[in-house]
Amino acid sequence: MADSPAFGVELVQQSRTEHAIERVPTGIAAFVGRTLKGPVNQALRTTSFSEFQQHFGGLWQPSTLSYAVEQFFENGGREALIVRVANGARPPTISLPAGGSELKLVAVNPGSREYLRASVDYDGLSSAERDRFNLVVQRVRTAGSELVEDQEIYR
What are the residues whose beta carbons fall under 8 Å from the beta carbon of 50, sequence distance 6 or more? Predict the structure, then answer.
């Protein structure tokens, strides 16, 4: 029904039966650079900044990548591929004395921002199980810290 509120202006109301075009992602952002930690030279799909922090260590001043990823998600980004690069980096190792030899533990990924400590105990093992032990690996907040953030026990 037409309405004429003013001379020369005509308003027409119509019912809308068509649907709006649905927004769909047209691409996935990719970020390549230095991070505090994480897998090296492999793309990892990330859907939030908290997920980025969990896998790559969060904001780090020497890393422009970390700030770019934070801004990407704060401005509505939904999915990103992150590739950590670490030129010439080697995984850290820990050597534990084991009788006349040593037990050498090697980290999966290089990086100096993971503070790990390892220990061996024999809790719950009988004296007949001489060649068995328990391995405890802990991630602490800072070097020398007593605050354990994560722990894994291998029996």
Answer: none
- For 122, residues 6+ apart whose C-beta sits below 8 A from its C-beta are 132, 133, 134
Cα–Cα distance list, 110 to 36, 55, 90, 113 (Å)? 10, 13, 5, 9
Collapsing DSSP states into helix, strand and coil, what is residue 21? coil
- The DSSP bridge partners found for residue 119 are 136
Spatial distance between the Cα atoms of 65 and 35, rounded to a whole number of angstroms: 7
Q: Is the pLDDT of residue 3 over 60?
A: no
80-84 and 29-33: which strand pairing? parallel
- CA 20 to each of CA 17, 23, 26, 85: distance values in angstroms, whole numbers, following the listed order: 10, 9, 17, 42
**pTM of the shown model:** 0.59
Mean local confidence (pLDDT), 139-146: 85
pLDDT (tens digit, 9 = 90+) per residue, 59-89?
999 899 999 999 999 999 999 999 999 887 7
Phi and psi torsions of 59, nearest 5° = -70, 140
Instruction: Tell me which H or E stretch contains 54.
Output: helix 49-56
